[in-house]
Amino acid sequence: MKQLKNLYKNITKGRKVLRKQIEQRSLNVTFLDAQLVELLAYHPKANEKNIAQIEYLVVRPHRVFKTPTLYIKAKGREEEDISAKQCLRVLFGKKAKTSTPSIDLQRALRHAIYDGSRGSYLFKHRGEQCTLCEKTGDTVDHYPVPFSSISKNFLTLQKCKPNISYTGYDYVLSNTS
User: Are residues 61 and 122 in the same domain?
Assistant: First the structure.
């Protein structure tokens, strides 16, 4: 861990080092890099992604953004992209080592409303001051009831367990109805 922290220094510098490491690799050529594999062990879903049994790494264009992206192939799993940035956040203590289903669900629910009414509201009212708390910014779901309470109450009243999936970018509801 100490060697990784010395190499990446902090999250901001680490992202630059990672970007350079990824962009220096040829596209679609498999490789193994002990340093990257060690960093990937810090991924919040390392056990689920079977990081301990990586067969190879490869750099491919991202499905959505088309930027060079690190993909892994682990034993018993399909090749998939992986966020090394998340690994840096865990390494430097800015994110928990493990993600939980409730955290993933919160992200999916936020994503669902952001594309709808919340996104429209933020676009119309960007830069305005909140009349209730007098804060300026994009965090308008904080007063008087936080989003976590709203979503918890919604799930309790609807008596539902939404299915979520990971798009390679964020968690989304599998069935928005």
Answer: no
169 vs 15, residue with greater confidence: 15
| Strand stretches in the chain, DSSP E | 54-61, 68-74, 80-81, 164-166, 171-173
Whole-angstrom Cα distance, residue 7 to residue 25?
Answer: 18
Residue 15 binned pLDDT confidence (cut-offs 50, 70, 90):
very high
| 95, two tokens | 């994110």
pTM for the model stands at 0.59
* Whole-number Å distance between alpha carbons of 125 and 11: 31
Cis status, amide bond into 68, omega within 30 of 0 = no
Which residue range(s) make up the domain with 154? 101-173
